[in-house]
Amino acid sequence: MTLDATDVDLEAHGLFINGAWCAADAARTFTVYEPATGQPLARCAHGSRADVDRAVAAARAAFDDGPWPHTPHYERAQILHEIAQLIEANAPELAELESRDGGVPLRATTFNDIPLGMHMMHVFAELARRSPYEPMPWNDFPTLSWNFVWRNPYGVCAQIIPWNYAFCMTIWKLGPALATGNTIVFKPSSLAPLSAIRLIKLIDESGLLPKGVLNMVTGSGPEVGEYLVGHPRVDKIAFTGSTEVGRKIMAIAAPHIKKVTLELGGKSPSILLPDADLDKAIDGVLFGMFYHAGQLCEAGTRCLVPSAIYDEVVERLVQRTRQLRVGDPLDLATDVGPLISHKQRETVEGYIALGRAEGARLLIGGGRPLGASYAQGSFVEPTIFGEVNNRSRLAQEEIFGPVLALIRYDDVGEAIAMANDTMYGLAASVWSQDIQQAIDVARRIRAGTVGINEHHVLNPYAPFGGFKESGIGREMGVAGMLEYTEPTHIHVDFQQQRDGKLWWDALLPPNEEE
Ligand code: NAP
Ligand code: MG
Which residues are named in the active-site annotation (predicted)? Predict the structure, then answer.
């Protein structure tokens, strides 16, 4: 992101506040670049504190005085289904935009990101149909009463997402918050905001939402994001991003005891068991690692390999990695695109140098692909290090790029201990033909999602989130919906007569006039 009002001749996308698109206070803008070419792609309004104040005020009024929190849940469900249909109708455009903005290969955005986002929105609509009244058992102590839980929306939600998997991240945020009757101030990443902006434009044009229910302020995290999450009129924060920023946000939320969900970093293991079917597992490990060029929070960035099959695994992983085509994300033949930015490439290259310095063995990759077509983009070759020590920084720190660490083990207990020996706990995969054994291992992994013979198992019916420093709370599934509601227990007394209320006598003497 570069702050500039003049250097790029592109019309700027506005902020979306109270149902209208507007320039930022002081007309500031920033430029968004295409990672594959390094060229400017768009300009966006850079919000200020005054803009955040206006957006929060709009969301506050839409929640406190507007119809949205009281709209019947089945009507909100219908609106979400219609938003999903908008995604479907505009899928090719959204896929291309996501590819250009995020550098994600068009094959991935066309066949995964956009259709998955649409599917997820339908599922949130379906979950929204669940009644907000939750029954409880009849209670007969001290006398008969009928009880239920009413699920209230929280109110104004501040939602912040990262640049990776930006379209699906947007759906994960907007879907459940809208489904449950909240209002929103949303901030996408400044590095890849365009698919979110396009979706919000589609929603705006459809007229499906009352004004003020959904607001968006673009701009830098430290400036716009931090002020937004600390805003005293915001009730709930839903943040996806790095653990480092997550810590800061939790501290900012503390003075007002704001509700917080955090979806943070990971260093997820792919655990090959000795009997893994390597014909499937080798490609599975590579899919887990190099999909989106390794820029996925739950990517399988550590691969735990039994010593007995280590050499064969190395040979086959390297042979398949050599076949991956790195290149232009818009080319349907491309398997691996660029990283999001030159800065991110520097970070990743720093880790590659560190891996060498730590004594890990570079097996493939490690550099930039050569050729004129790569010259301007932020490309890094798919890279694999062998003989990595699980306690080394290469194995412990989130790199967020295409760098796989192979770690040897001798028995399964050791593999489980190493899998858990990290500050993170987002995901894992276990590769075995013995499903019972794989389940036994899965249950001992301290992580929110474990795939057996699969990685990237993002299922909108299932809770997704992290143990330990990978986060707090869950997104998706029923658990994810409940993160956007505050329960009220409602007790309906069935003891019809004063005389039966003996416990009242503890304070009040029986009424003598009767
Ligand atoms: P990041 O630097 O933490 O930024 C994430 C978002 O927070 C961006 O919109 C950013 O704004 C904003 N932000 C930055 N500093 C802030 C602050 N002080 N206060 C409020 N907001 C602030 O993360 P990233 O580099 O974009 O994304 C990669 C990270 O996201 C990785 O750690 C990855 O594991 C994590 N992630 C987690 C999940 C999950 O579900 N667990 C999913 C995807 C990604 P700007 O960038 O516009 O300045
Ligand atoms: Mg971009």
Answer: 263
